[in-house]
Automatic annotation (TrEMBL):
The chain crosses the membrane at residues 31-52, 93-116, 140-162, 177-197. PANTHER family: STEROL DESATURASE (PTHR11863). It is found in: Membrane. This is Fatty acid hydroxylase domain-containing protein. Residues 1-16 have a biased composition (Basic and acidic residues).
Length: 347
């Protein structure tokens, strides 16, 4: 006999289906409860972190210290040796050289999956029946590289605000481990607000057909199309939400580079089309591309607040929107047809 799916009662707690179709009053209650729980968890974490930082974080600091020394050496080489201390050139050509290399190195893994279709990974593909054509991929590469050029050009006016904000450049001014965590917390929420509202605005009928429709040419996204956009949307929805956090915090330029690389990795995973173990789930954004509705944010918090996940939470994709802690694919845990999926074949 061959098992076709995992029954609910056999699922681990982290994989059990989430409730669907709750009445509005219950949704509001759940939202308030989620907010309270989030505040409690974050508050508890911060208290624990503060009280135990001497005993708990020294290992991270030791690791960070080693990384920081390496990062300082690399940063000094870039800043002092290559760019001769020229902040403008480093903030524009230097930063974008790093971002360009990081983006395309990350893309290699997903290109291998899409082109060669290794059998082990195909079970994690979300839209199994869709494969990008050679023409689509070549067009995507052209659009993405054009937008990377747009990003380079736009970095010059951004530098004006970087200089006004007094962002630091010297290697010895790189942040401590604890402070970088604080900065990351701010960056993440600034990106969530900036991306959610600009993305939702892009779906307005008067704007969609002229601007955002380009991004939705891909109903089954691949990793590189996170920046497959109209050039104006690339500036408003991709560059600004990521850049504003470091500008608000007056961060070190190295922090901006590191955060941008993290944000790039996140968007490549969410557009990758594969729900892989131990990686953040791309189900929410993949659903957005498939249906053209719901899930406008990065974290999902503002979607829940504004009710722009109402269709998503009723779908199987919502159940699958979990961090996979085992090798079982999400589609096996939550098949499209639960009854049919759980039937067992007999010889």
């Amino acid at each position: 006999m061959e098992k076709q799916c995992v029954p609910d009662k056999e699922l681990p707690e982290w994989a059990k289906p989430k409730p669907k179709g709750a009445p509005p009053s219950q949704v509001k209650k759940n939202l308030l409860s989620s907010a309270i729980q989030s505040a409690f968890i974050i508050g508890s974490f911060l208290l624990a972190f503060a009280s135990l930082r001497n005993s708990l974080t020294w290992k991270f600091e030791e690791l960070w210290g080693g990384s920081k020394t390496f990062y300082q050496d690399v940063w000094t080489y870039f800043y002092r040796d290559i760019f001769k201390g020229n902040r403008l050139l480093l903030s524009t050509f230097g930063v974008h050289a790093i971002i360009f290399a990081w983006f395309w190195l990350n893309s290699i893994f997903f290109f291998i999956l899409d082109v060669f279709e290794p059998k082990f990974f195909m079970k994690y593909k979300i839209q199994e029946d869709k494969k990008p054509t050679r023409a689509q991929m070549l067009k995507a590469i052209r659009v993405v590289m054009f937008n990377q050029l747009v990003g380079l050009i736009f970095s010059f006016p951004i530098y004006y605000f970087v200089a006004k904000r007094g962002m630091t450049y010297d290697a010895e001014d790189l942040p401590t481990f604890q402070w970088f965590l604080v900065e990351m917390f701010v960056y993440i929420w600034v990106e969530e607000f900036g991306f959610y509202y600009s993305h939702r605005l892009g779906h307005h009928p008067r704007l969609y057909k002229h601007i955002h429709k380009i991004h939705h040419e891909w109903t089954a996204p691949i990793s590189i199309i996170g920046i497959y956009n109209h050039w104006l949307e690339h500036i408003v929805s991709n560059i600004l939400p990521v850049t504003l956090g470091p500008l608000i915090m007056g961060s070190h330029m190295g922090s901006l580079v590191m955060w941008t690389c993290i944000a790039i990795t996140s968007t490549q995973i969410s557009h990758g089309g594969y729900h892989l173990p131990l990686l953040p789930s791309p189900e929410a954004h993949d659903y957005h591309h498939l249906k053209f509705i719901n899930n406008f944010g990065v974290l999902g918090v503002l979607d829940r607040l504004h009710g722009t996940d109402s269709m998503f939470v009723k779908s199987n994709a919502y159940d699958r929107h979990i961090l996979l802690l085992g090798l079982e694919p999400a589609k096996a845990l939550f098949p499209d047809d639960k009854k049919k999926g759980c039937e067992k074949k007999t010889n």
